[in-house]
Amino acid sequence: MANRSQTPKSVGLQQESDIIARGRAPTSRDPRQPQLPFDPMPDRIEPCLALLAAKPPAGPEWAYEIKWDGYRLAVHVDDGHARILTRGGHDWSHRFPAIARAAVALDAPALILDGEAVVLDDQGRSDFAALQQALGGRGGKRVAGDEVIFYAFDMLYFDGHDITRMALVERRHLLEDLLRDETGTIRLSEEVQAEGADLLRIACQHGLEGIIAKNREAPYRSGRRGDWLKIKCIQSDSFVVFGYEPSSKVRGAIASLLLAAQSEKGLVYVGSVGTGFKGDQVRELRQQLDAMKTERPPYAPRERKLVIARPELVAEIEYRGWTGDRKLRHASFKRLRETADSADVFRLSSPPGNSAEQCSEGGDISVRRAIPAVQSKN
C-alpha cells in the first residue's frame, strides 16, 4: 500500500468551565462568488493499458501490484444504479450482478472504478478458466455468482468530479479511503512495498502471471502510453487462429491450431500450437473452425494438409521465444479471447527499433501490441 501520513489526533481545548464555545452564525453565499462546478460523468473512459516490459523499472516513482488474470472492467455508479463495462465497451452489468450490488452499496454517490474481475483458486491466485466457467464458457450467457471478486486498482471519477488528471498517488488515496474495510465482492488491489525485481521473482515462484508497475505521478491516460508496465513470468500474446492441421493419429481430432500475427502487409503465419488444451476445448475448437471454412489465404503454409477458416478467432498463446525464421518457440494454448475483451493482436514490424520491444530471439523481429482484435463478421 502507498505510504500515507498519519491523521493527527484531535486535541481537547483547555478552557474555563464557565466559557461556552459558540460557532458563528452561518452567512449566506455571496451571489458574486461562483459555485464549484461538477463534471458530468462520462459514458465511458477508454482504459489505460499496460505496456509490456522485459524487466521491472526501478525508482521511487514506481508502484507495484500483482497482475490479475481476469476480465478488465469499469464500474460506474450514479444515482443508485451501477453500470459495468468491459475493456471493449460492452455493457456486462447483467453478467456481474453481485459486483453491481456491491458497487451501489459503497459510500459514494457517484464514481467510476477501474479494476479486474477474477475468480480465486484455493491458493488465492486468479484463475481465468474458473472465471470463464462462472460465465458459461467463452461466448456463454451465464450470470456470474458470488465467486467472482472485483479488485479495484484505480478510481477515475468521484462524487461529481473527474479525477483522471490527478496523479496516481492522489487517486489511490481516495480509492484506499473508500475500500479500506471492504473484504467482500469489491476489494482493493493492494500496492506491494518491495523492489520490482524481488516482487517479480516471488510472483513467478508462486505461479502468478506477473506484476504491474505504475508511475505514481502520472495522470490517468487512455491507451498504452508507458505510464503502466506489465512484466510477465511467462511470455504470452494474442494471435489470430485461421485454421487447424487434422490429426494423423486420431480420427476427428486436431493436431495443432494455425496462428498468424499482424504485420505491415497484413496477416503473417507465425507457427502452430498443439499443446495446452483442456477438457473438450479441442472438440469445440474444431466445431467452430469447421463452421468457418474458407479458401486458403496466401499466408497459409502450403506443405501440409490443412483446414483453413476465416481469421475471426483470437487465442492467447504462451511461448518461450522466437526461432530464426520468425516462428513461435514452445507455444502452448492458453485460451480464446472474448470479443468484449478487445484483445490486441500481436504485431510484427520491421525494421526493428521503431517499436516498444525487441523479441528475445530472432533479432530482426520487433513487436507492437496496439492492434485491435480481428472482429467477427457474424
TrEMBL record:
Stored PANTHER family: DNA LIGASE 1, DNA LIGASE 1/3 FAMILY MEMBER
Domain ATP-dependent DNA ligase family profile: 147-232
Region spans: Disordered: 1-40, 345-378
Origin superkingdom: Bacteria
Biased composition (Polar residues): 1-17
Reaction it catalyzes: ATP + (deoxyribonucleotide)n-3'-hydroxyl + 5'-phospho-(deoxyribonucleotide)m = (deoxyribonucleotide)n+m + AMP + diphosphate
Membrane spanning residue stretches: none
One family name in Pfam for this protein: DNA_ligase_A_C
Lineage: Bacteria, Pseudomonadati, Pseudomonadota, Alphaproteobacteria, Hyphomicrobiales
NCBIfam families recorded: NHEJ_ligase_lig
Family per similarity comment: Belongs to the ATP-dependent DNA ligase family.
InterPro entries in the record: ATP-dep_DNA_ligase (IPR050191), DNA_ligase_ATP-dep_C (IPR012309), DNA_ligase_ATP-dep_cent (IPR012310), LigD_ligase_dom (IPR014146), NA-bd_OB-fold (IPR012340)
Protein name per the record: DNA ligase (ATP)
EC code: 6.5.1.1
Organism: Aurantimonas endophytica
EC category: ligase
GO MF term set: ATP binding; DNA ligase (ATP) activity
The keyword NAD is annotated on this UniProt entry: no
